[in-house]
Automatic annotation (TrEMBL), chain A:
The keyword Coiled coil does not apply. Residues 27-263, 272-518 form the ABC transporter domain. Residues 1-22 are annotated as: Disordered. The keyword Repeat applies. This is Multidrug ABC transporter ATP-binding protein. Keywords: ATP-binding, Nucleotide-binding, Repeat, Transport. Pfam families: ABC_tran. It comes from the Bacteria. Coiled coil: none annotated. It comes from Streptomyces griseorubiginosus. One of its GO terms (molecular function) is ATP binding.
Automatic annotation (TrEMBL), chain B:
The complex is composed of two ATP-binding proteins (LsrA), two transmembrane proteins (LsrC and LsrD) and a solute-binding protein (LsrB). It comes from the Bacteria. This is Autoinducer 2 import system permease protein LsrC. GO terms for cellular component: plasma membrane. It is found in: Cell membrane. Pfam families: BPD_transp_2. The keyword Transmembrane helix applies. GO terms for molecular function: transmembrane transporter activity. Part of the ABC transporter complex LsrABCD involved in autoinducer 2 (AI-2) import. Probably responsible for the translocation of the substrate across the membrane. Keywords: Cell inner membrane, Cell membrane, Membrane, Transmembrane, Transmembrane helix, Transport. It is a multi-pass membrane protein. InterPro entries: ABC_transp_permease.
Amino acid sequence: MSDGERAVTPAPAPANDGRAPAAPPVVEAAGIVKRFGPTVALNGARITIRPGETHALVGRNGAGKSTLVSVLTGLHAPDEGTVTFGGEPAPRLSERDAWRQRVACVYQKSTIIPTLTVAENLFLNRHHHGRGRLISWPGVRRRAQELLTTWSVDVDPQAPAGDLSVEQRQFVEIARALSFGARFIILDEPTAQLDAAAINRLFDRIRDLQRQGVTFLFISHHLQEVYEICDMVTVFRDARHIVTAPVAELPRTELVAAMTGEAAADRLEERASTLDAKATAALAVTGLNSEAFEDVTFRIGAGEIVGLAGAAGSGRTEVAETVVGLRAADGGGVEIAGRRPRPGSVPAALAAGAGFVPQDRHHQGFVPDMSIADNATLSVPKRLGKNGFLNRGRRDRLAEGMIEHLAIKTPGPDLPVSALSGGNQQKVVMARALADDPRLLVLINPTAGVDVRSKEFLLGKVEETAQTGTGVLIASDELDDLRMCDRVLVMFQGRVTTEIARGWHDHDLVAAMEGVDLNA
Amino acid sequence: MPETVLADTAAQAVEPKLKRTALLGGRIPLARLRDLALVPAIVVIAVVGQIVNPVFLQADNLINVLQTMSEMALLVLAQTMILIVKKMDLSLESTMGLAPGVAAWLVVPTGAGHGLGLLPGGWAIPVTLAVGVLVGVINSLLIIRFGLNGFIVTLGMLIVLRGILTGISGGQTFFQLPQSMLYPGTAEWFGMPASIWICLILFAAAIVVLGWTSFGRSLYAIGGNVDAAKAAGIRTDRVLWIVIVTGSVLAALAGLLLSGRLASVASAQGNGYIFTVFAAAVIGGISLNGGKGTMFGAFCGILLLFMIQNVLTLAGVPAQWIGALNGLIILVALAISRITGGKVQE
C-alpha cells in the first residue's frame, strides 16, 4: 500500500506560502501514545497536515480519531510523542489562548451557549468595552456583524444562538475560530446532522475558506464525502496510523481495506439457516416513515436472523426502536408475529411477542442498583404473581433459571446489576429480553462494550433462540454481530439501500454502510 | 430544520428574520422586550389598586410597599445571580436571620435576654456581614470544592443555620439592639427610607454588572453551558465562588435591614421567605435551568408580588386568607409567564 507522506524537514520557516513543500506542516503529531487506564486509545499514532489542504481522518469506531482530536486541540496531553504547530512545539495545556490561536474544533456537540445571542457567543469573555470599562453592546454587535460578513456567514448577530440550525451553528463556530486567528480547523463529523443541501453548502464554504488559506482536518464516516472535499486522507485503525495518501491516489477498495484491516477481511462463519418459511413471519414492516428514516419495508421469517446495518445516523437504531414501540412512526405498519401492536407502545409490542435489548444498557437496559432478579423479570410482572403482588420465591426461581441459561457469573440473584462486569450486565439485559419466550427478538448494538468471550456467548444464545423459531433483528454497525445473519439490510441516510446475503466480505458491507459503490 | 441562506437568497432569507427578532428598526430586540413583560402587569395592578382604594397610589403607601419588600428584594437579587449560574441557595433565608442574630448575640448587653455583651455596638454591622461571608464560603466549599449537590447542601445549611440561631437566642427574640444596627433599617435619606435606597442602588448596580460587564456576562455563560464557558477562558469556579459568597453577604445585609426596621432579631427571622423569593425570581423570568433572565425582570417579579399583597390588604381581604391568595397569585403568575414565555419551565 502506498504511503503518501513526504519527508519533512523541520525547517523553522515562518512563511505560509500555499502548498510549497518547504513550508512546515500546519500541524504535525508524531509517535503519539495515549492511554486511558488499561485501554490504549492511541498507539504511536502520527499525522502531518500541510498548509491549505483539506485532510480527511477516517477510521471505524474506536480507531482513535476522537482521542487524536483532543490531543491536537490541547484538551489532553499525550503520554508520549510530540505535537508541533508550524514547526514549533505545542503550547502548554493551560495556555488556552495560545491553543485557540493555532487550532479550533467544531465538535458534534455544540460549544455555543444557547441562551445568549450570536454576537455574544462570538465575543464571549472578550467583549468590546466602551467608555467606563462597561461592555458596549453596539460595539459587540458591530464587530460580530463585521466578523460574520468577513466570512460571509448569513446569521443575525442578535438572534439567540439556541434558535440557530445545526448548519448555522457550525458556521458561527467556524467564524469564531477564525476570529481567534486560528487558520487550522478540525471538523468532527460535521455532516452527521445535516441534510444533503446543507452538506453541499458546508462544502462550498470549506472550499471558499480553503482558497483563503484555511486548513481543515475533516473527520467523517461517509467516505464519498472524503472523495468529494478532501485532498489527503489518513486512516487510523486500532489506535494506529495505517496510511496517509493523496485521496486521488487511493482507490475506494484500498481505503475500505485500510479501514477494516486485511486480517479480519475474510473471516466468515457458516451457519445453517433456521428459517421456517411456512410459519407466520416474526416481523413484517411495511412502508415505515419518520423523521429519521423513509419507506422502510422488510420481513423477518420465523427462525430467521436479519441484520440491520448502517453508520451512525443512518436510521437503523430508529427503525429498531420503532419496531419495539419506543418510537411511533409517522406512517406505515409494524406486524409482530401476525399481530399489530399499538404504535409507540412498548407494552403492546412486548405483549405481541417482542423481546428487546436496547441500544445503551446503562441508559435503557437496566436499573443499576436493583438486583439481577428484579432486573431480569422487570418486563414480565404477570408471571411473578397475581393482582400486582410479586411472589419473591417465584421471581428468584425464574431468575435462577435465567442465570443458569445465560451463564451469568454471580453468587446469586440478589446481587445488584451494577456489581457485574459489562458482559454479564448485557447478559442480564438479554435474559430479560428472552424472559417471555419472544417470537421476535430485537437487538440494538448487543455486544457494545462487552468482552470477546461474552460477545461470542451472547451471539451464540441469539442463534440458539433463532433455532426455536424466533425471528431476530440485529441493528448494529459491528461487523461481528452481523456475521451470523441470514441476510443483512444496509441503511444509508434513512433508507434501506442494499440487501446482502450471508457470505459477504467486510469490504462489501463497510462500503455499503458508508454509501460507497466499490464498482464505481 | 429552519433552512436559511444560500448565498444568493440571503437577502430575502434574512429580512423576515430581522422583523421577528427586533422592533423599532432593529434597535430593541424581542429578547429585551421579554424582560419588560411584567411592566404591563404592574401597571394593571396599579390601576386596579387605585380603583379599589384611592390610598394605593399615594406616596406614603408606595413607600410602605417598597420598604416592606426591600429586604426580600435583596434575597431575590442574591438568588437571581445564583440561579443564573445554574445553582440554587436555599439557605439564604436562614442566613438572613442568623447573621444579625449573631451580631445581636455578641453585642446586646447581658441581662437583657440572651445577649453576651462581648463587643461594643459598633461591631454589629461588620459581624453581620462577616457571618454572611462565612456562610457563603462554607456553601461554596461544599458545592464547588467538594462537588456536593447544591440543593441538598443548602437545604442542610438552611436547617443548621436556623438551628444555630434558635440555639444562641434560646428561641427568643433579641431586643435593645445597638444604634448602629437600627440605623440602616430606620434612617431616611432624601425623604425615603435608607433601605429603599440601598435596595434600589444594589439592583441598579446588579443590572449594570450583569448586563454590561464581562464578569456579569460570564454568569450567563456558565449557566448556559459551563463547558463552553470554560473553553472561552472563563475561570468558572472562581466566578461561582464570588456569586455564592456575594449572595450570602446580600442575605446578611437583608437581615440587617429587617432587624433595624423591626428593632429586634426574632429567632424565626426570614423563616419561609425562600419560597416567595423563588416564586418572584421565576415570575420575573429567571430560569431554574440557568443562563436566562435579567435582574430587571427579577425586580419586577418581587415588586408585582408585593403590590398585589398590598392591594389585597387595602381591599380589606381578611389577613387569614392572604396566605392562600399569595400562593394562588404565584401559581397564576407562573401560568401567565408560561403562556407569554411559551417555553416549558423546568
